[in-house]
Amino acid sequence: MRTVAERPGGSPTSAPTLVIRGGTVVDQTGERRADVLVVGGVVASVEQGIECPRGALVLDAGSCTVAPGLVDLHTHLREPGREESETIDSGTRAATLGGYTAVVAMPNTDPPLDSAEAVRNVQELSLSATAEVAVAGAITVGRLGERLAPMAELASLGVRLFTDDGAGVQSAALMRRALEYAKGLGVTLAQHCEDGSLACDGAMHEGAWSSRLGIPGVPAVAEEVMVARDIILARATGARIHFLHLSTAVSIELVRQAKAEGLAVTAEVAPHHFSLTDAATSGFDPVFKVSPPLRPPSDVEAVKVGLADGTVDAIATDHAPHAPESKDLPFDQAPPGMLGLQTSLGLAITELDLPLARVLALLAWQPAALAGLDPAHGGGQGGPIVPGAPANLCVIDPAATWTVDASALASRSRNTPYAGRRLTGQVRHTVFRGEPVVIDAEAQR
After folding, report:
1. What is the domain-level CATH number for residue 436?
2. Is 195 a catalytic residue?
3. 398 lies in a domain?
4. Which of 318, 332, 397, 440 is the catalytic position?
5. Nearest Cα residue to 384 out of 364, 404, 400
6. pLDDT tens sequence across 248-269
């Protein structure tokens, strides 16, 4: 097996014409053995035995799957305001190494993304990024939950997802008004489900481990009460709502029932909620602190069932980088959050007993549709790999094993809970708008 992308008879280089050779193409239309020819940023041909054009770059996909680029619904890029933790440049480089060609940037930056000026700033900073950056706008001004942000103005700039992520909208009346407004604009609200009056100052899941460690806990009902409330509001308003990083069995069941009723409700889960339990906090290491918190095994199993039966629509990383000094604080004082962009695919393949096509649906075309980045919404992400489609692609070796090395990650931060963990499934190449931004698991810029 070749491990270097090369021109025929030549040396490694970049070129506007690519041939991805010897792989199995998997997208929402099915699976087939085929080479993929990319010319001028667009898929030109998908068939076996493509003759390599003169000067084309050949990417070896032997024993690999060629898929639409992954799309992350939940990325914290930290810029502006927290560049010591992450920047758009470093975050999107990490994304491409994880197979992502698009990410949705959360609005809890400093200042928050609650104005046209703030949104335009991130959009301009993203022009040279190695993956598409879709900006999520805040639901409320300053994410304070007091008055609505200018959603119509932000929607006119292309914002399709609104959230106060990091904080749930506590007022039911305000959330109802936001849903009514969003329905008229044709955008989606995404809720961080946590009732503050129940969560109080909890730092981990309220249960046996919080009692044993003496750390205040967040009860599962803090999440579940808000999920139930917002399903009722979605029913009353007819608006779409997306639930961020659900983590409990009851939350998953509430979504299952809402979908059975035909409500416009979707949900995501984060990899750490199907790969870690609250027992990981036993050593008081803040790297395992996250919001919502890690849950007991019964909730982890319910999350896996929700992914398998279609209740959960997407795996979203909730990539939350923090500078080392902040994660070195005591557990109850450290900020919540974990890195996720470079480990999400490997964790899904390793931890979930699902066919690869189902994993790719959860990581690629379904989140692309939820974010409004798919061809049906005029975007170029997650669509079938067919002639004329934008060349946003990833090449995955589903059998490759690798060990997570925190020091080798592209993020500016190192707060991964998976350091030293051996995973199956690795990204070999990533192509963004026809440009190979990752070749043989190495970033090209």
Report:
1. 2.30.40.10
2. no
3. yes
4. 318
5. 364
6. 999 999 999 999 999 999 999 9
SS3 per residue for 53-93: CCCCEEEECCCCEEEECEEEEEECCCCCCCCCCCCHHHHHH
Residues forming beta bridges with residue 135, ordered by sequence position? 105
Q: How far apart are the first and last CA of the chain?
A: 25
The burial of 354, by beta-carbon neighbours within 10 Å (0-12 exposed, 13-18 middle, 19 or more buried), is given as: middle
Residue 6, pLDDT above cutoff 90? no
Q: What is the dihedral of CA 197, 198, 200, 206, to 10 degrees?
A: 180
117: CB partners within 8 A, 6+ apart: none
Please say if the pLDDT value at position 362 is more than 80: yes
Strand partners, 26: 31
DSSP string for residues in 307-322: HHHTS--EE---B---
Structural domain that includes position 63: 17-67+386-443
State how far the Cα of 29 lies from the Cα of 24, in Å rounded to an integer.
13
| CATH code where residue 245 lies | 3.20.20.140
Mean pLDDT value across the chain = 95
**With the C-alpha atoms ordered 235, 239, 240, 241, is the resulting torsion angle positive or negative?**
negative
- Check: pTM over 0.85? Answer yes or no: yes
Between CA 433 and CA 400, with CA 413 as vertex, the angle to 5 degrees is 60
Domain shared by 269 and 218, yes or no: yes
pLDDT value for 9: 36
Same domain, 327 and 395: no
- How many Å apart are CA 431 and CA 436, to the nearest integer? 4
Number of domains observed in the structure of the chain:
2
